[in-house]
Amino acid sequence: MFGMILMTISAAWVGSGDAPEGVAEALAPTMVRLRAGEYSPVDIARTLGSGGGNLVEFSQPPVSRGFFGAEGATRQAQPLPRTIAIRGGEKTFWAAIDEICHESGLRPVAGAGGQSRVVLVPASRDPGFVSNEGAFRVAISRLSYNRGWPIPPDRARRGSGLEVGQRRSAAGLLRVELDVMIEPRLRIVKVDGVSVSTAADERGRSLLIGAAGSDHTDPSDHVMGASGCTVALGLLYPDEPGRTIETLRGEVALVAEGGKPAKPRRVKVGFSFKNIPMP
To answer: How far is it, in rounded angstroms, from Cα 15 to Cα 150?
Structure first.
């Protein structure tokens, strides 16, 4: 059903602060105008990819993983819906993807291989923890912790109560994995790092290791793809952990390619999450 969606490229930058020269237009979000109705996954994928160059596919994996990646959360995936209800209105590409996923019990993942694309796979209707900014999407994919983690010299923070190199029996490392995706018409070239400005639990205790705004990237896990990547950041896991990470805010520094002619551009993509359950 062509004509269900009219796509245009916005000229406005929707990012953290002022975009560098040349970045605002090239990496601006695609605006999608939806016509209310029910459409098949084939029609949605076909129309989302027409005109704007954002390739979207629907897939049916054998199993889906729980939010925190726990083995006990693995379950048989539900079949793809025959039709998906669409509400009318204009929104960004990622907001449209979120609506489709919420209505149909799907979630977006970056397509494997060299071709930039978004694949929608069966999952929970709960969107999880997502932060959309312009042409980018940042989502928490996994939380884990390791007690007794030795604090390296370059990550020690005054006032944290942890001495350099000390292995504590209770305190440890809280590892947060982030899935960073970009509209498929664009491409992520590389990620330079993740900085965290705020990380605190519901008691107001800071979970930062190092100064606010410093690089918190965990170099042990960094997976790249054309339309997305996974990066991990390290935070402090307290001796007596709270119930939630009340606030987690920061930026992903990366190089993205887009526009005509395609040109690599450096950009910082902000993310902000609230009330994340502590593992």
So the answer is: 36
Tokens of 183: 């509209």
Q: Maximum Cα–Cα distance for the chain, whole Å? A: 63
Q: Which tokens hold the place of 85?
A: 């209800």
Nearest CA-CA partner of 164 in 216, 210, 214: 210
Domain ranges of the chain: 5-70+83-277
Which stretch of DSSP H or E encloses residue 46?
A: helix 41-49
Q: To which residue do tokens 């209707």 refer?
A: 125
- Phi, psi (rounded to 5 degrees) for 34: -95, 140
Q: Which of 87, 140, 106, 180 has its CA nearest to residue 275?
A: 140
Phi, psi of 242 (to 5 degrees): -80, -170
Indicate the SS3 state at residue 65: coil
Residue 89: φ, ψ to 5°: 130, 170
Q: What is the pLDDT of residues 46-98, one digit of tens each?
A: 877 776 678 888 886 544 444 444 433 444 556 778 888 888 788 888 998 99
**pTM strictly above 0.90:** no
Given a contact cutoff of 8 angstroms between Cβ atoms, the answer to whether 247 and 274 are in contact is yes
What are 227-252's pLDDT values in tens digits?
788 888 889 888 888 999 999 999 99
Q: State the sign of the Cα–Cα–Cα–Cα dihedral 19, 22, 27, 28.
A: positive
Query: d(Cα 275, Cα 202) in Å, to the nearest integer?
Result: 8
* CA dihedral over 151, 203, 215, 184, signed as positive or negative: positive
Give CA angle at 64 (59, 68), nearest 5°: 135
What 8-state DSSP symbol labels residue 93?
Answer: H
Look at residue 100 and give its three-state secondary structure. helix
- Residue with token string 């694949």: 119
Structure tokens at 16: 């953290």
